Amino acid sequence: MLKRLTEEQTARYREEGFVFPIRVMDEARAADYRRLLEEFEAAQGGPVSGALRNKSHLLFRWVDELMRDDAVLDAVEDLIGENILCWNTLFWIKEPQSEAFVSWHQDLNYWGLDTDDLITVWLALSPATLESGCMSVLPGSHREEMMPHADEYRDNNMLTRGQEISVEVDESKAAAMPLKPGEISIHNGRLAHSSSPNRSDDRRIGLSLHYMPTTTRQIIGDWDSAALVRGEDGYGHFTHTPRPVRDFDPATVAFHEKAADAVRDILFHGAEKVRQTL
Ligand SMILES: O=C(O)CCC(=O)C(=O)O
């Protein structure tokens, strides 16, 4: 029995590789999370960037809480079953009127995860509109062969190595996924997607959460971690991440350093150069 999604939504996900919008909290709660993020940014004197963007559930207690939110996990369970790991939690912040963009790519090309059931939940903490550079996807592309990618390292590309699908993407077939604060989109890790610069006067703030079944293995890195967020892990392929008892809990900050380094090594595996991400 489905917990959160409708039969129509699960069928759409299987056929097209994405489903949206799904409201998982009201706008007021999303605004509270945005405030927590921006209080931290004000205190540190700049936006969350670099290693702090990755595995952020080890740094911010509220991200750990969000990652385990029942409204989110019920939707994920409807698609990949009840034993669920979260591999990564990653901020995607585009400043007002900024050039930051995301080129067309397929996540599973780079993550070393041997599953076709990788799910990205993208939660909007501010309006993600056509103007502010919401994500677009290529419906059905998750069911085709993975496309070739090339590392282009273009300025303002938010992806680690500026990876881009190196064959023509027919953008006339693309579907935009605008979201209001507190809504999520879900897309499959094989689905081609991208996003444009932010031409609005507000920040475009998203948090992506990458969920996978406990059967998944890491095939690029020797060591990797993930949070067990629901059910049981009968496989033990990933070291389970600890939970922070407060923001920047020293125990989880130490773990974060190792875990974020491991992700970085995986993402840059085989790359010609390693660069600081936006
Ligand atoms: O936030 C964006 O514009 C892109 C996000 C993305 O590529 C992802 O969540 O997989």
Notes on the protein architecture:
This protein has 278 residues and is of the alpha+beta class. It is built from 5 helices and 13 strands. It has helices at residues 7-16, 27-44, 61-67, 70-80, 250-267; strands at residues 18-23, 84-94, 102-105, 119-124, 135-137, 149-151, 163-165, 175-176, 183-188, 193-195, 204-213, 225-230, 239-240. It is globular. The mean pLDDT is 94. Bound molecules: 2-oxoglutaric acid. 2-oxoglutaric acid binds at residues 92, 102, 107, 120, 122, 135, 193, 195, 206, 208.
Notable characteristics:
4-stranded antiparallel beta sheet; alpha+beta; 23% helix; binds 2-oxoglutaric acid; Jelly Rolls; 278 residues; globular
Largest sheet: 7 strands, mixed
What is Rg? 17 Å
Q: Which percent range describes the beta-strand content? A: 15-25%
Helix content estimate = 10-25%
Summarize it.
By secondary structure, the protein is of the alpha+beta class.
Question: What is this structure's SSE topology?
Answer:
Elements: H1 7-16, E1 18-23, H2 27-44, H3 61-67, H4 70-80, E2 84-94, E3 102-105, E4 119-124, E5 135-137, E6 149-151, E7 163-165, E8 175-176, E9 183-188, E10 193-195, E11 204-213, E12 225-230, E13 239-240, H5 250-267
Parallel strand pairs: 12-13
Antiparallel strand pairs: 1-9, 2-11, 2-12, 3-10, 4-9, 4-11, 5-8, 5-10, 6-7
The structure holds 2-oxoglutaric acid.
